[in-house]
Amino acid sequence: MESRFDGLPECGLVRAVTAIPRPDDVDDGSGRHRPGGRDGCAAKDRSELLDPPVRGLLHRLAAGTREGGCQPASVRQVLVGGVDDHVEVHGRQVALDRRDARCAPCDLHGADPRWQTRSVEIVAFSEEHAAGCAALVAEASRRARASEPLLPAALEDEAAIAARIVGLGSVGLGVVGVEAGAVVGFVGAFAFDLWNRPGAYVPDWGHAAASVELVHPLYAAASERWSGAGIVTHALSLFAADRDLETAWHAVGFGRVLVHGLREIGDVEASPDARLAGPADIDVVLDLDHGLWSHLAAPPTLRIHPESDPDEMAALVDDPARPVWVAERTGEPIGFAGAARHHEHAPLAVIDPAVAHVTAAFVRPSERSSGIGRRLVDTALAWAADAGCDRATVEYESSNLEAVGAWEGMGFRPVVHALVRRTV
């Protein structure tokens, strides 16, 4: 079996040419010396200190070695100048260019992040960084839209995003990675209560990185600020298509909790089984909404939500911009669905005048195989199409397996994921 790396066989042992020099004795090519290993001690023969290019090669080779029944041998870093590293594979020296290398995040991120990103300085956010941050966000959006063309281009207006980032930076919880004077990554957050605890939320436009190995040092610096402010719950949103980036955030303790799905509306028709709710239906909608949140509070989702406010529900069913439809069987309510042209809690990446939002949907357990849920959603989508929309989004919990199957079965594709980490 041949590898895509210059004909090197994937099944084999990989080892370095020499042992690791003491990091603080090695010039990184910038005129500065690299920080030492953990606690400033001399680096030993530990794979956790491998530089990203070497790790990237090993991760790519690892799949082949495991398939072939072999395990890679101990690998040690070789430092030659500031650009290329060399390792020996099957007796051949292989040059690795840092600019082309990518690292699959894993337990190797346990090494001192300053050592792994030797030329990147992590600093507090300031307004001068906004344009560089916005450029990284726009590039991430372009990559995501290459994978999912239905996504709006909302994050690619760099001037508008830079203005948002300036506002985010004024909160004082943001950090930026700078290399050779250029912004190569950043993380900024809003402070707010999340699940009745002090939280930091990083919106989809509030972070980006030129390389996934920057996630660890950026988060380390940002979370130090957040902890100093008494923040214990950390959350962020990112493009579902960027799997390497999400894996990097998983590696520092984040778990996926929410999915934002997107689909074309297409040719749908309102169902006669769904009727538009009005002021007389407040108690009916409140009861169905209670059923929805009781379902979400149960295992495995375990998402607790306060009881809906009757006054807010009364305003909802009387608002033509946020209609709610109810389905009944023999006079008993069995399900409901809601929609809106604008959803203030949706990620900016999915907000567009042509994108509507399914704001809620619930069907009683006894009716979940009857197709009534799809008919309710079709009715909501037909309303959105009449309002001039051609796409729709929905938000659902990643642990709600029934919802995952239902929404994906109705054509919604994951485009944004929300991740959370609770530190206490």
Q: CATH superfamily membership of the largest domain, which one?
A: Gcn5-related N-acetyltransferase (GNAT)
Whole-number mean pLDDT? 78
Q: How many angstroms does the end-to-end distance come to?
A: 47 Å
CATH class of the largest domain: Alpha Beta
Strand sequence of the main sheet, in spatial order?
8-9-11-18-12-17-16-15-14-13
Structural class assignment: alpha+beta
Largest sheet: 10 strands, mixed
Helix content: 25-40%
Computed Rg = 25 Å
Briefly summarize what is shown.
With 424 residues, this protein is an alpha+beta fold. It has 10 helices and 18 strands. The chain has 3 domains: 14-116, no CATH class; 121-245, Aminopeptidase; 264-415, Aminopeptidase (3-Layer(aba) Sandwich), CATH 3.40.630.
List keywords for this structure.
424 residues, alpha+beta, Aminopeptidase, 10-stranded mixed sheet, 4-stranded antiparallel sheet, 10 helices, 29% helix, elongated, disordered N terminus
Draw up the topology in text.
Elements: E1 14-15, H1 52-67, E2 79-80, E3 84-89, E4 92-97, H2 113-116, E5 121-124, H3 130-147, H4 158-169, E6 175-179, E7 182-187, E8 190-194, E9 197-202, E10 207-209, H5 215-228, E11 233-239, H6 243-251, E12 255-264, E13 274-276, H7 282-297, H8 310-317, E14 324-329, E15 332-340, E16 355-363, H9 372-386, E17 391-397, H10 401-409, E18 413-422
Parallel strand pairs: 9-11, 16-17
Antiparallel strand pairs: 1-3, 2-3, 3-4, 5-6, 6-7, 7-10, 8-9, 11-18, 12-17, 12-18, 13-14, 14-15, 15-16
Helix pairs in contact: 3-4, 7-8
